[in-house]
Task: structure prediction
Amino acid sequence: MAYPTPGAAATVAPAKAGPRAGWLAHREALYGYAFISPWLIGLVAFTAGPLLAVFYLGFTEYPILSEPTWIGTRNYQRIFTEDRAFLVSLFNTAYYVAIRVPLHLGLAFVFALLLHRTVRGIGVFRTAIYLPSMIPIVALSVIWRVLLDPRAGYVNYFGGLVGLPPINWLTSTDWVKSVIIFISLWQIGIPMIVFLAGLGAIPDQLYEAAEIDGAGWWRRLQSVTLPMMTPVILYNVIIDIINSFQVFAFAFILTKGGPNDATLFYVLYIYRQAFEFFQMGYASALSTILFLIVLALTLIVLRSSRYWVQYERI
Result:
């Protein structure tokens, strides 16, 4: 009878999974799918399904009251060759996004820096800055419509007390875009909270090392805070671009797209085509173009992030 030599490693064959183990794994998978089934149903019914339907309807003529009729790329040809309002709405939206996103995120970051302190009562100030973000956009628009009324609004009233002439804020093409951008800046609470979370995640030893090297607050901001915050800035930039391209309620409630189409934003134009002119196919084509524009901008920002976003390595 042969015995293993001393010191030799014993080889143990792996145990084969029996039928019971396979049945348990199968049942565990079924339980997992059962628990996530509400999310899967919601994804298919309310996200993926409507998205695919919009892509399809963009190639049809669909006046709601009758069945959609396939017309190929005729909607897109009309958009790019005949529709002047498409270019106007796209320009207005691009202008809004280009001005609003830097101002919105810049203010949110500044307030986050100011409120990132462990002093007594700081929670009150954080709450005060965040609260306007909880006000529904419709209510906020109605409030500002009253304040900016050219005859009885409080803005012109207090301006008159200091000798300023009354201004038609919502009916002047020179002022209306700036007014809507200003109103949107009141809702800086959500990106500010995200910035505060990012500031709280920066290791204290980095600031301590910078102080030992003699860095002042400005140098610490440049060399520590901003580089460590770049992933959070990237997230906020992408989310803010997506949200800004969907501007609708301010223009719909305050100006109805006027004066002279100065606030005819892209989503408002889609709404008009779909629910005023009942051209669902044409509106679907416009929506598809908006989706592709936002997707392209998101990919560009993500692509550029490799050059300026720094991730912490421990």
Q: What stands out?
A: The CA atoms of residues 234 and 305 lie 7 Å apart.
